[in-house]
Design goal:
Elements lengths: L1 E4 L3 E4 L5 E4 L5 E4 L8 E3 L4 E7 L2 E8 L4 E7 L22 H10 L21
């Protein structure tokens, strides 16, 4: 069960969840489907663990904005505690701006003799 109080309020009834508590304090609660967590706390969150009435209780608190989340487990299938080491830099290519820049720098890639007269106009989103 997950009980969140803060910028909003939410209550998630019993179910099987994956909970990740990252080294920077992020707390993520995932259900069996979907990519995004159903509940989460940002980095800088403090987390405490207790056993209450034969259940594992995880309490996380964040001060700015003030919010707290209580996660209660009646049954556990797995617990993993580890410290991850990862200093790799994330590099991404193939974004729209990469494609546009490639076409502008080498218009013959699209069609021989192609001349770029102007770049797309920047507009506000919305």
């Amino acid at each position: 069960m997950v009980d969140y109080r803060g910028r909003a309020q939410s209550l998630l009834d019993w179910g099987e969840r994956i909970v990740m508590i990252k080294q920077d304090g992020n707390v993520l609660v995932h259900q069996p489907e979907m990519r995004e967590p159903v509940n989460w706390q940002p980095s800088g969150t403090t987390t405490e663990f207790q056993v209450e009435n034969n259940s594992l209780v995880i309490r996380s608190r964040h001060s700015h904005p003030p919010e707290k989340m209580k996660i209660t487990f009646r049954n556990l299938k797995m617990i993993v505690a580890t410290s991850l080491r990862d200093k790799a830099e994330f590099v991404i290519a193939g974004m729209e701006t990469d494609v546009v820049n490639q076409i502008i720098s080498e218009p013959d890639t699209i069609e021989e003799g192609l001349r770029i007269s102007k770049r797309e106009k920047q507009v506000k989103s919305g």
